[in-house]
Design brief:
Helix content is 47%, strand content 16%. The chain is α/β, with parallel strands linked by helices. The chain has a seven-stranded parallel β-sheet with strand order 3-2-1-4-5-6-7, sandwiched between helices. Helix 1 packs across helix 8 (217-228). The structure holds nicotinamide-adenine-dinucleotide.
Amino acid sequence: MAEQKTVLVTGGGGDIGRVTAGMFAAAGYRVAVSDVREAAAADTVEAIRRDGGRADVYEANIADPEGVKSLFERIETDYGYLDAAFNNAGRGGGGVPLLEADDDIWHDCLLINLTGTYYCMKHELRMMLKRGGGAIVNNSSLWGLHGGPTAAYTASKHGVIGLTKHAAVTYACQGMRINAICPGIITAGLGLKVLCRPADVVETMLAKVPAKRAGTADEVAAAAVWLCSDAASYMNGHMMAIDGGCGSV
Ligand SMILES: NC(=O)c1ccc[n+]([C@@H]2O[C@H](COP(=O)([O-])OP(=O)(O)OC[C@H]3O[C@@H](n4cnc5c(N)ncnc54)[C@H](O)[C@@H]3O)[C@@H](O)[C@H]2O)c1
């Protein structure tokens, strides 16, 4: 019998993480669901098991290098190998432009969104390279490609794109594929904070989206799972926008 594929989903207790973890499980993966909020990750795992899938909870703060080291030691002990990873854990940037930016939020946003992704990628690469390769998908944002309204978030997500491109060109010849997804406004998680603004503000915002609607967590998850699949075997260093066409305006 073929070995079961394994994947790590960080931020697996959040909205996009939960849906993506479920989709990986439905595609046959054993899913390591990690989050700093252990109870939220446990809910994701419970839902996957209820649907007949395999998943396990791993509490970890990706901003803490020792915590990340321990996360991968636990995964290596339990799974032995990792085929794919979805670096999805993240936070908002306070919703303000540069002149109003709070230094603490700036540092925390960069630490979680960018440095946390870097800590995880180091271990993912080491584990995957031992097996001859694997696939990593980083969750950036539409604001990783364009000038967004929030300084810290925009800077952190541009950083994720740079890290993705660097790793993609550096490790491609060793069997790695490393891509990023760039969701626009999504009816989940952080996107809900934007969508709960006054109706006229939301209406104006969505009117600028060529698709005239926000995206869904399922639409984001499908892209992440596909990029990790063999169907995407020649995709590397790609920044996939899931934004209803915003990036083409
Ligand atoms: N929802 C959107 O509209 C949207 C758009 C573009 C990009 N994104 C990105 O999608 C990703 C998931 O966000 P979401 O919208 O599902 O929000 P969410 O808040 O529901 O999920 C984020 C998850 O990350 C976890 N997390 C935060 N800090 C962590 C840390 N230090 N260590 C480990 N886990 C941590 C949270 O506990 C949470 O479960 C984020 O990277 C976000 O930037 C979201």
